[in-house]
Amino acid sequence: MAVKIRLKRMGSKKSPFYRIVVAESRKPRDGRFIEEIGYYNPLTEPKILRVDADKANNWIKNGAKPTTTVDRLFKENAVYEATGNYDNTDVQKAKREEEKAQAAKARAEREAELDRLEEEEKERKAKEAEAAKAKAEAEAAAAAEEEAAEEADEEAEETEEAEAEEATEEA
Question: Spans of biased composition, class Basic and acidic residues (predicted)?
C-alpha cells in the first residue's frame, strides 16, 4: 500500500484551507484518509502551518512519501528531524548529475574509440590501396616482360626461319 502525506482541501469557495493528512495514494484528494497530522491556511498573514512533527516523522520513517507541496512546507518550517530524514530531492539531484557525468564520460570514451577505429580503418584502406597499386604495377611489369619475351621469341623464330630459308636456298 503506497502512502502519501498530502493536503486535503477544505473550506468554502475561494477561501480554502488545507488539512495535512496521511492517505493511500490511490484515494481521491479529498477522500478517506488514514490520519490527520496537521493543517495549513495560506490565506492568513502570516500563513499558518500546524503539524504534529512526531507523527509526520514517524510516517516518513515508515515509508510515507510527502507530496512536493507538503515537502516544501515541511522544509520551510523545519518539520523534518535535524538528521534530514527525508531530504531526498538533493540526493536524487546529486545522483542524476553523477549519472549524467558518467554518461557523458562513457559517450566521450565511445566517440574516442570510434575515432580510433575510423583512423585504423583509413590506415588499413590506404595500405590495401598501396598494396593493390604495387600489385598492379608488378603485374604490368610482368606483362610487359612477357610481351617483350614473346616479341623476342617471335623475332628469334623469324630469324631462324629466315636463316633456314637462306640455308635451303644456298643448298
Answer: 90-115, 122-138
Same domain, 82 and 116: no
Is the residue at 163 inside a domain?
Answer: no
**In tens digits, what is the pLDDT along the chain, a chain of 171 residues?**
689 999 999 999 999 999 999 998 888 877 788 999 999 999 988 888 898 888 888 888 888 899 999 988 888 887 776 444 445 667 778 888 898 899 999 999 999 999 999 999 999 999 999 999 999 999 988 888 888 888 888 888 888 877 777 777 776
Domain around 101: 89-151
Contact 7, 31 (CB under 8 A): no
Q: Which three cell numbers stand for residue 64?
A: 510515507
55 falls within a domain: yes
Residue 111 CB neighbours (<10 A): 10
- For 40, the 3-state DSSP assignment is strand
- For the CA atoms of 130, 136, 140, 146, the dihedral, rounded to the nearest 10 degrees, stands at 120
DSSP result, 121-133: HHHHHHHHHHHHH
How many domains is the chain partitioned into structurally?
A: 2
